[in-house]
Amino acid sequence: MAWPNPLRKRDENTCTAWGYTFQVTAQHFTKDDTASMKMSYDKLGEAAYDRLNGLYPPPSEKQGTSQATEDSEAKDRRSSAEGKSRKRDMFLLLRDHAHEDRVLSSLWTEVNTIPQWVCWDQIARGQEVFYRYGGPALTGLAFQSLLGGMHILQCTKDLYSIQPGGAGHASSIRVRLLHAAVRRRITRLARSNPEYFNVDEYGVPINDLDCIATIGTFSATLIWLSFPRQGIWLKDQEIKDYIALFRYIAYLTGTPTEHFETPAKAKAIMESLLRDEISPSATSRILANNILSCLENQPPTFSSRSFLEANCRWLNGNELCDQLGIGRPSLYYWALMAGQVLFFMAVCYTYRAVPALDQRKIAASADQAVGFGTR
Fold it and tell me: What share of the chain is helix, strand, coil (3-state, %, to 5)?
C-alpha cells in the first residue's frame, strides 16, 4: 500500500506505474536501452560453462549408449550407489581446473579480483542492513519477488562469506554458471522449437536486463517500495551501504555493475522496469497464485490464504494484484496486516535507536536465518 504524498511535485516528467509515482530523469532507461540489454549477456560466464561442459561432461554423457540397454533394476542400483555423484559442482570444477584453460582462468581471476570501488567496511554494513530489517525484508522478497533462498542468506551471513573463499562468494559464482547453463539449454530448445521461447520478443534468455532486474529487486525494490510500504525508511548511509553490497554481488554474478554505482542510479533502474517491464500475463497469474499456494499454512507462520493475499495487496497494490488474479481478503485480514506493519516498525526503529541492542539483534537474526536455510 503506497502512502500518499500531497506535497509531491507533478509536471510533464511525473509518471505513475502500478501505484508508484516518480519523476523521470536522464538516468532512467529508455525503450532503446532495455531493448539493447535484452540482447546482451554474460559472455565470459557462458564461455566458461561451455568449456567446463566440454572438458568435464556430465556422467550421463560419458557413459554413452550403454545405459540404454541397462535393465531397470540395474539402473536403480546405480542410482542408489552413485547418489550425488551424478551432479557436478561447476564451482568446484572451475576452482580446481582454472589453471588448465585460458577461459576458465579468466573467469576465476575476475571473480577473485576485488574491484577498486569495493570497501569491505561498507559491504559489512550493507549486510547488517538486511538483518536489521529482517522481517520487512523477507516479507518484501516473498511477496514482491521470488525469494532468493540460501543465496541471499549466504551472501549476508558475515563479511567472510562474501569474500573469496566464503560460502556467499562461491554461491554467487554457482548462480553465474547456473545462469549460463539455463541460457544454453533454453537457446538450444528454441532453435529446435521456435515456439518454445521467442528470442525476438524476450531477448536472449537470462540477459543483462533480467540480471539487472534481479539485483534491483533485492536492493532497490526493497529500499524504495517494500520498506516504505511497511513503514520503514532507511537512513541515507544505510541505503548507500546496501546498494554497495548488491553492486558487488552483481559483479560476482556477471551482472553489469555501472547501474548500481549510486543509489540514484539503482532507484532509476527500479522505476524504469516498473514502468516498462511489468505487464502481467496469463502465466504471471498462474505463477503468482501458485506461490501463494506454496506459502499457505506453511511453517513458521502457518499463514492463511487470506492473510497472504492481504500481504500481497499491501505490498503490490490493488491495481497489480487485480491483474494477477489475487483474491480480495476481508477487512479483518487488512487489519491483521496493519498490525504486522506496526509491529515491524516498533521493533526495527526501537532496536535501531539503541546500538547495543541493534548489534545483538543483527547477530541473532543472522544465526537464525542461516540455521533455517540449512535445514
Answer: 70, 0, 30
**Which tens digit of pLDDT belongs to each residue from 178-191?**
999 999 999 999 99
State how far the Cα of 55 lies from the Cα of 94, in Å rounded to an integer.
11
Of 335, 121, 68, 150, nearest in space to 245 by CA: 121
CA distances from 68 to 63, 78, 227, 374 (A): 10, 13, 54, 37
The pTM of this model reads: 0.90
Short-list 299, 375, 369, CA closest to 154: 369
State whether residue 290 is helix, strand or coil: helix
> Which of 19, 309, 307, 52 has its CA nearest to residue 173?
52
Greatest alpha-carbon pair distance for the chain in Å reads: 74
Q: Return the number of other C-beta atoms located less than 10 Å from residue 330's C-beta.
A: 11
For the stretch 299-318, pLDDT in tens is 888 999 999 999 999 999 99
What sign for the dihedral angle of Cα 193, 194, 195, 196? Answer: positive
Dist. CA 60–CA 58, nearest whole Å: 5
Listing DSSP states for 10-73 in one string gives: -STTEEEETTEEEE--TTSPPHHHHHHHTT---HHHHHHHHHHHHHS--HHHHTGGGGGGS-HH
DSSP character at residue 159: H
| CA 368 to the chain's CA centroid | 20
Terminal-to-terminal C-alpha distance of the chain: 33
| Identity of the residue numbered 6 | P
Q: Are 17 and 274 in contact (CB under 8 A)?
A: yes
